Amino acid sequence: PGQAEMYAGLQELGVANGEDLKETLTNCTEPLKAIEQFQTENGVLLPSLQYALPFLDLHGTPRLEFHQSVFDELREKLLERVSAIALEGKVEERYKKLEDLLEKSFSLVKMPSIQPVVMCVMKHLPKVPEKKLKLVMADKDLYKACAVEVKRQIWQDNQALFGDEVSPLLKQYILEKENILFSNDISFLQNFFSPSPKTRRQGEVVQKLTQMIGKNVKLYDMVLQFLRTLFLRTRNVHYCTLRAELLMSLHDLEISEICTVDPCHKFTWCLDACIREKFVDNKRARELQGFLDGVKKGQEQVLGDLSMILCDPFAINTLALSTIRHLQDLVGQDTLPRESPDLLLLLRMLSLGQGAWDMIDSQVFKEPKMEAELITRFLPLLMSFVVDDHTFTVDQKLPSEEKGPIPYPSTIPEAFTKFLQENRIACEIGLYYILHITKQRNKNAFLRLLPALVETFSDLAFSDIFLHLLTGNLTLLSDEFALEEFCTSLFDGFFLTACSRKENVHRHVLRLLLHLHHKVAPTKLESLQKALEPTKQSGEAVKELYNQLSEKLELRKPSPAEVTETPSMELPLPSVPTPASR
């Protein structure tokens, strides 16, 4: 720090500083006497010290070192005392003491050695005087140095400044989510949805935001407003995850000041328990239904917040997995979907979650209408696929008669494809059904339904979350990659249809091949390598992945020495262009 800063504010308190000493020495005739007088006037005024200081001089301890250690000791004592004052006596009295102390010391706030004390006083004041807050806010260094308790008081009346602090954290959060989805570690055991809600809430961004908000409802509301705005602007569902994680992080800390005023608290808490179990059981289903049915007239706006909580991919994942499980149970019970209240509730919540963006955008707060056909036609269709699998399995076990084995059904009902294209909820459930059969290593069912994924509602089959889960589950079918037919259906029939127009699909295919290239038939691998070559427009991530894949494939090629050991008898024929290809 410069000289001016080191002594900032001392003159206002009538304490001599370096400038005064300089002036005294400039205008005196006997400098040594002047220095001695300055030391006497400004030293530690303890009679017993007069004899101790010469003793220290004999030991070669500089006076600066002595004064510095005394100063440090006193500062520590003062900091301890300030913290103690903040906890003792009547509320008004303790804050009056601290305010008086702040008034006396604030002029020294820029003096590095005293600054911690001033900051400590402000930290313990629930309401720092407006004038002082403005001075802190206007000075970059002071603002940076002050405690989060003081910054909260500044932020609550300065949304733009708070936004500047929060914005980099939100960007970091989205980036972290995307990094997990595009991670090179592909596994059906560990995926995007593996960490428990409690583990996720320990993440750096959630913890920092929780600390920045403290118990301040106004700041909490501001963060929620930022999240809503960003969700509307980008349609990025990870903001919905953060909305739920933040509320539950405050719940973990038992911050009732905020939890009691957020109308979504109990609903989110109940849903959080379902996400932890990756299943909505009957008891919790009743509870969740109670919250939805309990939205009173005039309070419909809460549906906007509830829909955002339900739009969190972790919530959608739990609801969709529970739906698939229910459908399987219904097959075993010979029951139709429309006869299952639990299933209808899951669809109601899926529908509310999937409609979040439209609801917040239109500001029309009412639950989306459920299409009857979803329940009367689409879900029974999915159940018929489950029955097809059961029938086929039983057929395989029966002794074969003259007619030979019964082939697996290969056609898809047109209605299924149409539902996937036109109905968002049907599409979401259909995609989860495909993930389910892949996880069961059911190659026949997978190849049968795969063509329906080329065109889906809002390209959901090419979304990062679905592709992340699909690539993970496909590792269970790794042996099938040696078969030309399987690879042609998967790559040519599905992935490559979107690679050129969707960079994310390109990345997911390369991730998959990096993991399974050794399983793919060499000729197929070669054609895939050509098809997946990055273009000029490709982003850095695609180029990087492609280079990694090329390096791996290069290592797998046999060395020239090995190749020459088996000389070919045939001479290569020169290629003569046919008239048509000229």
UniProtKB/TrEMBL annotation:
<dbReference type="Pfam" id="PF06209">
    <property type="entry name" value="COBRA1"/>
</dbReference>
<dbReference type="InterPro" id="IPR010405">
    <property type="entry name" value="COBRA1"/>
</dbReference>
<feature type="region of interest" description="Disordered">
    <location>
        <begin position="556"/>
        <end position="582"/>
    </location>
</feature>
<dbReference type="GO" id="GO:0032021">
    <property type="term" value="C:NELF complex"/>
</dbReference>
<protein>
    <submittedName>
        <fullName>NELFB factor</fullName>
    </submittedName>
</protein>
<dbReference type="GO" id="GO:0034244">
    <property type="term" value="P:negative regulation of transcription elongation by RNA polymerase II"/>
</dbReference>
